[in-house]
Amino acid sequence: QVQLVESGGGSVQAGGSLKLSCAASGLTFSWHDMSWYRQAPGKEREFVSTIRRDGTTSYADSVKDRFTISRDNAKNTLYLEMKGLKPEDTAMYYCNTWDYWGRGTQVTVSS
Predict the structure, then answer these.
(1) What pLDDT is recorded for position 30?
(2) DSSP H helices in 1-111
(3) Which of 17, 26, 22 is closest to 50 using CA atoms?
(4) For residues 66-88, b (16+ Cβ closer than 10 Å) or e, as one string?
(5) Do residues 82 and 9 lie in contact, with contact meaning Cβ atoms separated by under 8 Å?
(6) Which of 16, 41, 73, 101 is the most exposed place for a label (fewest CB within 10 A)?
(7) How distant, in Å, are the alpha carbons of 31, 41, 59, 67, 111 from that of 36?
(8) One digit per residue, pLDDT tens: the chain, 111 residues?
(9) Rounded to the nearest 5°, which phi and psi values hold at 109?
């Protein structure tokens, strides 16, 4: 049974930083492209970033140069380091691979 468990969210002021983690189990983690998505209240879920099996990465334009995705295959863990946070980054952040989703971790950025 695949499980994705996010952690690391919290409340910060604009300009602050957070590092999210996603602990994966029930899958061969190194074989999977892994992604982060987010959903703000009243809005659709949107893509944030992907790290592929080969380590290459992609980012939404809105987070490029501020967020960094990484993975530790030995720990079966996905990360999202977020710097220069803005109020518009406020959302529930979800870990994803294939059609598996975690329950999310809340990020709130105040101005």
Answers:
(1) 97
(2) none
(3) 22
(4) ebbbebeeeebbbbbebeebeee
(5) no
(6) 41
(7) 17, 17, 10, 11, 24
(8) 999 999 999 999 999 999 999 999 999 999 999 999 999 999 999 999 999 999 999 999 999 999 999 999 999 999 999 999 999 999 999 999 999 999 999 999 999
(9) -120, 120
